[in-house]
Amino acid sequence: MNISVKNIIKPLSLLGLISLTAWFINTSIDKNAGGQEKSYIISASSYQLLQTELASLNVQPTHQLAIINAVAVSLNIEQLAQLHAQLDIQVTENYKVEMSGGNAWGKRKWQPKSVVNDLIEASAAHSAYNFGDGVTIGFLDTGLDQLEGTSSGLGLSTDLYGKDKFWGTYDAINNSISNYSNEESGHGTHVASIAGNADYDVYGKVYGVAPNASLVGIKAFDAEGKATYADVIRGIDWALQVKDQINLKVLNMSFSGPARSYYWEDPLNQAVMKAWQAGIVVVASAGNSGPDPMTIGVPGNVPYIITVGAMTDNYTASYVNDDKVATFSAAGPTVEGFVKPEIVAPGGHLSGLMAFDTQIVQDHPEFHDGGRYFEMSGTSQAAGVISGVVALMLTQDPTLTPDEVKCRLMDSAHAAFNNSGELAYSVFQQGSGMVNVADALLSTASGCANQALDIAQDLAGSDHFFGPANINSDGNFYVEGLGDEYVWKLNESNLDGDTIIWRMNYAVNALDWKNTASTDTIIWRMNVETDTIIWRMNFETDTIIWRMSVADSSTGIDVNNWVEQQ
Length: 566
Known about the structure:
By secondary structure, the protein is an alpha/beta fold. Helices cover 25% and strands 20% of the residues. The protein is built from 14 helices and 26 strands. The radius of gyration is 23 Å and the shape is globular.
């Protein structure tokens, strides 16, 4: 008998969350008991009063994070307790963050072909002279080099017509603006070139999805692809301040960190939600921690934004039947039960611009061509593809809201089916399917994204939301209210030798999961005794067969970790 466990485990979930919160507070106090200072992100309903109380303690914030009514400040435990006694505050450690990276296998000794635009059918937009003109994409990353490609003068600093399109870089680490970025990693430049490289390959095909889109770098990550929450939030805050001046309509976030709380409690996610609410389309990588369920990280777990998984052409760009979702691509559902990612895009062995003296090239010189191009895999690169696609959509129709962009992307995506006409991957792996630019630009869909959510109420703390995912008695995830085709049978192979067919999903209920949410309590069970979140149980042996420990303060958020090239 297939019995839902949702109602049975709700009380345990709430007790577990209380235990987890207490565990975090006690752990923080124990680690900081000796009077040693630690960096915190502290928010209060009154931003001005918070500043006044901090001044009375004779401490100076390192970051002013007005976007979420917060500051980053270093305090010892006595100062923190004193502040808490004077004011109702929310306290989060200033966690480390890391980027969503990738890897390449096999040295390329010649200029690579441009393949992404053919895979996603962006060439149709280019034929209509839609190159992303008039839209600025921000890259919250490691910085952005103004590299030229192999075509004279073309690359990241100029568009196809030789016009300047680079807005410079805001350094969120040092709170400064420069025309030139100190890009030590190479990650940010590579991701940006996937979206906006105006260089041509030897066959005359342009590399970037939106080669005429303007670019701006927001540097929050160092040479190793690491950052703090405070620097990332300050970068988002800056993006909101300048968005109208430079027409910043898209914000790419190719990084991921562990989910330590509900999405609405995380201060980085709060800043991300503010950006979406302000009219910026936020595109985040799913992360490279797949293929297991519930591996979506921060900020990809925010239900409002567009979270991107990765697929690969399996090194056969002209033959689509062997395409597959990359095994490193993180999968949903989220802790709150939302289906993620919303969409997948090419993220396997993509060639992009990267300087020879950057950290990634120094660590992996065999993957650089010795000139201008480097080959990487990752959901970071897939997010860059989607950011370029969004620029094309906004060039065609600048009036589209973020919710409308998300709706049309999902409505027009091509899901992966097998020979039997069944979904080759669950919605928790492929979302709506693979992005298709031609159909996205033709789509007139509306009201199919975020309609059951209320971002204003969410940010105000009045209402928070849970998605339609659940787990059945067999330990498999499913979407409530939908059929067996929306059950992720974890013990079954996805393909079994079948070929892949990418096509639009014409099922009557194909879009139902995309617009479903409730304010019910969390559905997952938490083990109070071991501080471990239990995601799936083996119902035959009653043992835990898949779990994730609660992240501690040492777990970083970064540009996604290196993965084997696919």
